[in-house]
Structures are given as structure tokens and as C-alpha cells.
Amino acid sequence: MTRAELLNAFRIALDALRANRARGMLTTAGIIIGIVAVVVTMAAANGLQNKFRESYSSVGADVIYVSRMPWIVMNDFFKYRNRPGITLREASALEKRFRGLAVVNPSMNTQLDIKFRSETLDGVTVIGTTEKQLQMSTGQPEAGRYLNPFDVAYKKNVCVLGYEARRTLFQGVGAVGKEVKIGRATFRVIGVMEKEGGSFLGGPDFDRQVFVPITSFVRAFAGNHAREDVTLALKRPPEEEPADFEYAAIGEMRQIRHLRPVTPDDFSINKLDTLVGTFNNMMGVVLIAGLIITGISLFVGAVGVMNIMFVTVTERTREIGVRMALGATRRVILTQFLCESAAICLAGGLIGILFAAAVTAAINATVMPASVSWPIVAIAAAVSIVVGVLAGVAPAVRGCGLDPIEALRYE
């Protein structure tokens, strides 16, 4: 079929839609609902993925974490819970073994209230760490400075506030140099971290954190821990293969803990890939379930379009006979009705995209992150056209298969 014939088929299809606007709107209702469901499902998945990347961007793709518990526990929780915690002595031993090869940073954390004058922030994550923490993440101080080796070595009661902690407690007042109460201990603020982003699906809120020297943490908050439970962050050298680096960390930890070859690891190796893989699996299941539901909606809409197209073919039987008598081929008739069906569904799809954009904006503002991107719009429009073509095949075949003489006699 030539380009001119195709354009003419679309023109006739649009004329037919304009002549039956009420029928066209009713016909597209099912398609609109289906496209809204498709776009909102994909927009929610897209928004969650963007939020996930934002929330965990500071974890570091080249950093592995050695800890007592795995980040994600699917079963055997009590087996992991009963493991011995990693001690500061073991942390120091691992740091010595990797000296000159990789950066090793120990940390401990707890949840405490932090207070400045009459302002209190509940449930802040207090992290005992060292100056090497800055090498493990993308976060940097926005004001003041970070911890230094002197603070750690001499157990200084100094702290660095996360962005949200500073904003809530000080509300525009300069924080550096002020004293805050963390639990029952007093710490002097030496710095404030830049904004890193909020929590995601129960993950850490990087802006509601307070950093103190790990030595000061042990002295001030040791009573909050029945046992030492240090997490070790190991930054991989650029030239080291990830798998080799992970095996080396496992081997060194097993030697430090004097584990026999047949004894399983009593510690866990965690990394960003673990979170990404679990998140992608979860989102894959959610997306498939959502698309199955939306597919049912689109199927119902397609059946409605097909029924209307059968009615349209019957009503225009005489028109088909006249066009065939004037030289129109069966292919032209077939294309005309396929274009008309596709145009109906595309119109419904465009209306559905507009509705979905409004729904997505409301969801993003009130419930969860969601965002519509141009690829999602293009996919929704393509789905509309494909559904229209498939729904129009049977009616179009029936229309182009009419006998011209019998069609001219039709009343």
C-alpha cells in the first residue's frame, strides 16, 4: 500500500470517528482504563527505582561490608542472631592485614534521641566510626569538618550531624561549635553533612544520622550493647576484581576467627549488589502482577472495540459496496477498518495517558514516589495502537470479504 493510500485510510477513519463521537467515547472507555493502569504501574515502578538509586547511592558499589548479620534475612533468623559479634580487636586485625591493599573502616551504631536546648529529635541513628568513613560514601561535610584521626585516638566527644538532624535541631541557627546531648552524653558539633536523601522501604535515612568517633561511641554508649557488634567496610582497590576481593576478605576473616575448613562462616559479606538484586526481583514480581491486571483491562477494552467495529462494518455495508464498485481493492477496505480501529484505541490511549499523568502526580505527592517518563508514554501509545489493530482484524476481514454486488443491495 502506498503512502497516499495509507493517509487516505486514516483520513476516512478520522471522518468516521467524528461522525460517531458519542459511540467513539464509549468505545474507548475500556482502553482508557487499561492505559491508565499500564502507565500508573510503570510510573510507580520507575519512581521506586529512581528513589532506590537515590537512597542507596552513598552505599558505594566498590565497598563490601563484613558484619554479623546479612542485610536481607529470608530464613534462619536465629542462626544469624546467635552468631558472635565482630569485635574491635578483630576489626583492628583485619585492618592490619589489608593495610596498603584496601581501606578498612569499622563502625557501630545505635538509635538514640538527640537534644539541643528545647529541641529534641527522636530515634536518630548514631554511628561510631573513623575518619575513613568519607572514603566509603559520596557524602561530604557541608559546613565545618569531619572526624579526624586525633578525634578517634583521643576519644573526643565531637560529632558530625546529618542534614535533617541539623535542620530540625537548629532551625537556621549555626550548628558548628554548639553542644548537643546524645542520649546522656554531651558532644560538640564540629560539622554538618550535605543532604543525601531520605529513607527507602525501611532503609537508612542518611540525613537523620550523627557521626561520632568509634572510641567515644564505645565509651559513651557501650551500655546500649550487650556485646560488641562492629560492621567493617572494605573499599576495593580499582585494579582488584570484585570476586577476588570478596574471597580475600572472607579468607582473612576466617583466619582471624580461627575457623576450621569444614566450619561455615560465622559472619556475612554484604554489598550493594545484594540490595539491587533483591529490589529488582521484588519489582519484577510487582510489575508482572500489575501488567497481568492491566492486560485483562485492555483485553476487555479490545473486545468492546471489536464489537463496535463489527457494528460499524454492518452499518457501512452499502458504503463498502460503493467503494469496491469504484475500484477500491479488498486491501484498501481492510486497511481502512484497521486504521479506524487503531485510531479509536490511540485516542483512548492519549486520553488515558493524560489521566494517568494526573493520577501519578497525586500518588507522587501523597503516597509513594512515581514518575512518568517519555519511554513510558511511547510504550502506552504503542500498546494502544497494537490493541486497536488486533481488535480490528476480525471486523476488517469481514468488511473486505463482502461481495460487492450483495453489499450494494444491502439496505
Mean pLDDT: 83
User: What's the helix-strand series?
Assistant: HHEHHEEHEHEHEEEHEHEHHHHH
The helix-and-strand class reads alpha+beta
Q: Please report which band the strand proportion falls in: under 5%, 5-15%, 15-25%, 25-35%, 35-45% or over 45%.
A: 15-25%
Largest sheet: 6 strands, mixed, barrel
Structural domains: how many: 2
Instruction: Tell me the span between the first and last alpha carbons.
Output: 31 Å
Query: What is the number of helical segments per DSSP (H or I, 4+ residues)?
Result: 14
Strands of the biggest beta sheet: in what spatial order? 2-3-8-5-7-6
Helix content: 55-70%
Quaternary state reads single chain
Radius of gyration: 32 Å
**What ranges have pLDDT less than 50 throughout 5 or more consecutive residues?**
none
- Overall geometric form: elongated
Number of strands: 10
Q: How is this structure best described in words?
A:
The chain has 411 residues and is of the alpha+beta class. It has two domains: 3-54 and 277-409, no CATH class; 84-266, no CATH class. It has helices spanning 3-19, 21-55, 77-81, 88-97, 133-136, 149-153, 163-170, 214-221, 242-256, 272-315, 317-325, 330-366, 374-400, 404-409; strands at 63-67, 103-116, 119-129, 141-144, 158-161, 179-182, 185-193, 209-213, 231-235, 268-271. Strands 2-3-8-5-7-6 form a six-stranded mixed β-barrel. A hairpin with a 2-residue loop joins strand 2 and strand 3 (119-129). The model has no long low-confidence stretch (mean pLDDT 83).
